[in-house]
Write a structure and sequence with these properties.
129 residues; alpha+beta; three-stranded antiparallel beta sheet; 6 helices; 3 strands; 57% helix; 12% strand; globular
C-alpha cells in the first residue's frame, strides 16, 4: 500500500487524493469500529465523533475504487480516519496485551503496519498542507 498522502487546503477543509487501498483502509477501520457494540460515548472516545458522523464518512469512503480520487475532508473527518486507523488494532489484543496479527488481517484485509503508516502519513500531510 502506498504510504504517502497528499493533502491540499480547500478553505476550512482538505482535499485528500486517496489511492483505492488508502480509501479502503480508512473505510475498513471506520466501519469495523462503528459496527462493534460500542455506544456513542465509546465510539466518540475511539474516533472523536458519534455514530452518525462516522457512518456518513464510511458511506463516502465505501465502494470498490479502481483509481485514485479526491475526497474533501474536514479536519474532524481526518481526525476520525486517523483515530480509527490507530484504534482498530487495539481491538485485537490478547489478554496479556499482545497484538494478534492474523485475526486483524483476516477481518480488515490489511496488516497493522499498513494502518500505522497511513495514520502517520495523514498527520505528516496535514502538517505540510
Amino acid at each position: 500500500m502506498r504510504t504517502q498522502l497528499k493533502l491540499t487546503r480547500d478553505g476550512d477543509a482538505f482535499i485528500a487524493r486517496l489511492t483505492p487501498r488508502q480509501a479502503a483502509a480508512m473505510y475498513e477501520a471506520l466501519s469495523f469500529l462503528s459496527e462493534r457494540d460500542h455506544g456513542d460515548t465509546e465510539l466518540t472516545l475511539l474516533v472523536g465523533a458519534g455514530r452518525e458522523a462516522v457512518e456518513a464518512l464510511v458511506a463516502r469512503l465505501a465502494g470498490r475504487h479502481t483509481e485514485s480520487r479526491d475526497f474533501r475532508l474536514t479536519p474532524a473527518e481526518l481526525h476520525m480516519a486517523h483515530s480509527a486507523l490507530t484504534a482498530a488494532p487495539t481491538m485485537f489484543l490478547e489478554r496479556g496485551g499482545a497484538f494478534v496479527q492474523e485475526p486483524f488481517h483476516v477481518r480488515l484485509g490489511f496488516y497493522r503496519e499498513n494502518f500505522d503508516a497511513l495514520a502517520y502519513a495523514v498527520v505528516r500531510a496535514a502538517a505540510d498542507a
